[in-house]
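From the thread on structure requests for the teaching lab: each student submitted one protein with a one-line request. Submission from student K.M.:

"Model Helix-turn-helix domain-containing protein from Sinorhizobium medicae, tokens only."
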Amino acid sequence: MSQEATIRRGVRNARYAAIPNHVFEDARLSMEARWLLSYLLSKPDNWTVVIGDIIKKGNCGRDKARKMIAELVDIGYAEREQQREDGKFGASVLVIFDEPRCATAAENAAEASGVAILPQTDLPATALPAPVSPAPVKSAHSNNSDSANTDYQNLREGGRDAPEDGQEPEDPRKIDAAFWALVKDWPGFAGMPKEPARKGWFALTADERREASERFARWLQLLKAQKKSHTPAPSTYFGEKLWMDVPAQDEAAKPANAMAAPFGKLWSATRIAELLLPPSGIVAPPTKFEQMQIDAGQVSLADVMAEKRMRAGWPSVNSMQERARSAQGSMCPLALEEAGQGFQAVKRDGDLLAAWQREHKRRGWPFPEGRLPEWVYFPALEGEGDLDFLVAEAVERYRERIFDYLANRSKGDDHAA
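Reply posted by the TA:
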């Protein structure tokens, strides 16, 4: 066996973080929560982030970001603390630790040496130092000993993005004027503190300020459509980057669905996605004839109900397959178009198609009936080995890839119910 190293590391410099191995190996945390913990531990001790930053850096939705934070709190890598300002309660913050804290240690504030703080209120969302300076330690989780190169230092100087070569730095007066132009008609802003919102505005990049302004009117429309009784403060809008909940103008103009040809990539991606959702159809109890067969021992109740569930559990899939038998396409969500590009063509009557049929039977899914076209698309297999095992793996990889889509669909079904 070759002794050549399989892990090759680049030259070390100031832009790397030393993070304890157990952060990546703690099986109690999901992979997403491990990423979030390592991301926060890579920041300087006085780093301040907001949930909008997690959403952007993690390329995830607000619900998933909050779920990852909740995991860190549950396991003990994070604790919520209530700050005091001028003798009054201030923002509730989240302190992050590189070792999970037990309940008794968490009660001792003197031991809290947090390395990241996440504001939970409408107070300023800028990256300011924590109100109590962390204990001086040789941090194993700061990714930079030169604070002049950190994002935090750039924030203190008034903007996170340094101007590119040949570009003039932004004029603070113009940034300020844009702020007042945006908030002048903000619902309820007349009675709110102005400086927290202004600091939050200056903490954004130029592109973020542009997006925040462009999407503001449509964000208000979204709140109205959702029948929200309260308009969040500007500091919350800027700090949590709430405008990201609103699609960009070009995205909003795109149709949500498209007619997809039967057994093509988008059609197949939609069919498998629907099957990955819990069955929503009404499954009828055994008929009198079926009950007679069950009583006579000719068939089991489990087999009868499994057949009924397969034929009635996923009405949308049954409709797609019924239309496909007449060579008719179906309206499919374009949100699955990219995921469907990774599907592979499977030849009719081949061993791989037979493996997909067995996987459908194992999961209790309906398989298209009748004669199929010469090529049918399914999630791509990886590696070599037993076809049944590889097919099952391909389904789970596809489930992980469209996790957000399935979660949103499940929410929509819950609301409809």
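TA comment: The chain is about 45% helix and 10% strand. The chain has a mean pLDDT of 78.
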